[in-house]
Design brief:
Elements: H1 6-16, E1 29-30, H2 33-42, E2 49-54, H3 60-68, E3 71-76, H4 79-88, E4 94-98, H5 106-111, E5 119-125, H6 131-141, E6 147-153, H7 154-161, H8 171-179, E7 186-188, E8 193-194, E9 201-203
Parallel strand pairs: 2-3, 2-5, 3-4, 5-6
Antiparallel strand pairs: 1-8, 6-9, 7-9
Helix pairs in contact: 2-3
Length: 204
């Protein structure tokens, strides 16, 4: 992918494999290299880091993660995209699991990796329709994941990070803030995705 814009590469991969974004999986592919780099930088990814990525799609974020991380453990539900990812990333530092993350035990999969890492984080551009269920599942079940860096719908991001007595503050805010220390890292406009969603996004 080096030397080719993320947008050009995304379009090329979709065309080459005869694919298009699937609404049933909430697929919107991030195509801005500056934002992708910022995500990895803000997550402080390094060789001591195991990154859990959910919904890697066509691997735009995955590529940047693999440059810095000790290992990337990725989950992809779309079998068509699994084939693309296996073609793109044939590295011992990349483990890809095909399946629905809501049916997986992430801690079991982490324990099965050949090496243990002192820092385990999640970095993901999550499908908006299922963001909250995924986050809640992992917060309840995983004892390994220490930090979460998540792209989500901006409205949901505001609820995750809002303060009491503000209009965004609700029951979800209470639960998330009881279980985590949450902050808004960056707002992301809808124009930097293919296809563009109907809402703006944010990274929490």
């Amino acid at each position: 992918m080096k030397g080719i814009s993320v947008k050009t590469n995304t379009v090329s991969l979709l065309q080459r494999h005869g694919l298009s974004a699937k609404k049933k999986y909430g697929q919107n592919f991030l195509i801005d290299s500056n934002i992708l780099k910022k995500i990895v930088t803000k997550a402080n990814v390094n060789s001591d880091t195991l990154v859990v990525e959910i919904g890697p799609g066509l691997g735009a974020l995955t590529e940047y993660l693999l440059e810095k991380a000790g290992h990337v453990l990725a989950y992809e539900i779309d079998s068509d995209l699994v084939l693309v990812l296996k073609e793109l990333f044939q590295k011992p530092s990349f483990t890809l699991i095909e399946g629905d993350i809501l049916q997986q035990n992430v801690d079991t999969d982490i324990q099965a990796l050949p090496k243990k890492y002192p820092r385990v984080i999640m970095v993901a551009n999550l499908p908006y329709y299922i963001t909250t269920p995924i986050i809640m599942k992992l917060l309840e079940e995983s004892t390994f994941i220490q930090e979460y860096y998540v792209m989500m719908q901006q409205e949901v991001a505001m609820r995750f990070t809002s303060k009491p007595s503000t209009k965004e503050y609700n029951a979800l805010s209470v639960i998330i803030q009881y279980k985590t220390h949450s902050s808004l890292l960056m707002k992301v406009p809808r124009q930097v995705f293919i296809p563009a969603p109907n809402v703006d996004s944010a990274i929490v």
